[in-house]
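Researcher: Next sequence.
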Amino acid sequence: MGNKGVLLLVEDEKDVADNIRDMLTDLSEKILMAENGAAAIEILNKTKVDCVITDIRMPIMNGVEFLKQARKNKHQMPFIVFTGHGAEDLMLEVMQYGAFDFINKPDLRGLEKAVSLALKETKNKMKSDSKEMMSDYKKMVETQSTKKKT
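Model: Next structure:
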């Protein structure tokens, strides 16, 4: 499986969303789609997602509000902002909420590279989390076996 993962693509322009989905098919196990941040929050609250790609300017809930709400809800997966409105102040704002990367449209190659790196980071974090859990488990086993000896 490599570094494939579940992606959530949040984009209100259907043709743009379809192009991104087609391009990222090889990197993903599954690509979930949402037209705005509010719909995307519902998906995040129900489904395990490894990486989010979001536009900024969307109806109902924009990408910045979506990122803020996701972080408030403790969703810690990488967020990649893919927008045609790449102002420096906007970049700084999304970085403040822990965005993984900020790619200006229409740089699809840059987006593909960022998604690949984000999925790799997610998989590495999962591996290290399971190692930490394993070491906690080993500590617990050691504690129990020490108690039995005394």
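Model: Residues 108-149 form the longest helix (42 residues). The CA atoms of residues 20 and 108 lie 7 Å apart.
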